[in-house]
Amino acid sequence: MPSLTAVRLLHQGILSNREVGKAIVSSGNVEHLLRFIVTQPWKVENDSATNDEAGNETSHEEADNDEEEDDERDVDPITGSKLWKCPASGLPIRPDWPLLALDDLLHSGSTAVFNRPNNLGEDWKPSELEMVRASLKLAVAVFRGQLDHSKVSRAGGVADTDDTLAKTKARAMLGSLPSPEQILLGVMKVFMLEKDQADTFTDKTASGATQQKQSGVLTGRDLFRDSTISQELTSLLGIADELVQLRRSHSDSNVMSTVTLDAWTTSTYSGSMSFYQFFTDLASLWDSISFGDANFARVVMTVANAGCKGGVFEGEDGMAVDFRRLVWNDYSDSLRSTPPIKVPGWLLGWEDTDADMLQHYCRCLVSLADTSAARGSMAWQIARHHVGTAMRSIVSSEGDTNNAASTKHAKRVETILKSLYVAKGEGLLRELLKSEAEASSASKLTDEETQRLVARLSSSNVAQ
């Protein structure tokens, strides 16, 4: 079965990397997943440019008949209600097709593929854990193979060659890659499998100080704690970061996918859920059940803080400030547990000018400043960057009083930074300026500029 399915997928032009095809064929772990994909109620979109008129009419009639038969079968035999089908399933196959099973697992009680009578064979025995493992393993193999192939083509100077066929192949490979937003949403769906599930603990001490959650191998839950799943999630998050960088390098060609989180959430949830609603549920889970899980914190912090503009992430406008306010204000206590992972440069390649957010960043720095280990956390790195750029903006705007609105905003920024000075003194300010300059490409402030800034922030008491 794996070999047959791999051939079908290769025939559809999904996989152009030979090694990826070999990985699918030889991997016994993905047999159940591939069988699951085959049993999906696929919808085929015919290409009118490649068929004559009579052939098209016949194909459309057959498709309509198949759709009517599917509609008759896609009814719950007990309740009589319509069974759910992911609107993003079907052909042409979606760029993140290895993660398709996650959509049905999130709707396992009502999805057609699991609940249609006799849809799956009697030997169908995989657990949710096995399906998630297989989905992620397949996704990493496929996406990594495509990404590496794209890098090899670029390193080989395909863009500078006169070989039209080579250029076309390279563009096709780039165009077949999923957007980083699609991969991140897939990662988030793994964590969303925990929604509405009761927490279970074992080995709880009398004082309640240490708690050990049951393994997903036993309960079917807490799947993200499984070592195999955790490793694959880490790989997918790394691939998403690389895709952002790759897309930035091809920003002038528009060849790579720019599907946004909001658009892909609408596509995979039939428009019944916005991404902000999805992310609100995810952030609540992160706060309540993550217990410092590095991947959970990493995906939440990456998405919430990707306020990049100019098409770097989530379109021209980037992520709305509402996402950052949700994490840095509503769930500020969870920021203490963010992992000591180096924040990618693209996530720090912009300046947050929202004054409310600057206040949240300063509060976070104050709360973490006395913990030396916290200086490597994602929260510290992000807050340090935005506070550091805010301090630089004060220096660069000295003497600029032409714009009243700009002056008013600058005064509020200065007031917030004075609060930081009052709380932690000159030492932290100098540390932030130094470390922010080292972590970014910004030029270091001169000693005179730094001294002038410190004097300005310490010049008067802050009105509380």
Automatic annotation (TrEMBL):
<feature type="compositionally biased region" description="Acidic residues">
    <location>
        <begin position="63"/>
        <end position="74"/>
    </location>
</feature>
<dbReference type="GO" id="GO:0006366">
    <property type="term" value="P:transcription by RNA polymerase II"/>
</dbReference>
<feature type="domain" description="RPAP1/MINIYO-like TPR repeats">
    <location>
        <begin position="253"/>
        <end position="391"/>
    </location>
</feature>
<feature type="compositionally biased region" description="Polar residues">
    <location>
        <begin position="47"/>
        <end position="57"/>
    </location>
</feature>
<dbReference type="Pfam" id="PF25766">
    <property type="entry name" value="TPR_RPAP1"/>
</dbReference>
<dbReference type="InterPro" id="IPR039913">
    <property type="entry name" value="RPAP1/Rba50"/>
</dbReference>
<feature type="region of interest" description="Disordered">
    <location>
        <begin position="47"/>
        <end position="81"/>
    </location>
</feature>
<dbReference type="InterPro" id="IPR057989">
    <property type="entry name" value="TPR_RPAP1/MINIYO-like"/>
</dbReference>
<protein>
    <recommendedName>
        <fullName>RPAP1/MINIYO-like TPR repeats domain-containing protein</fullName>
    </recommendedName>
</protein>
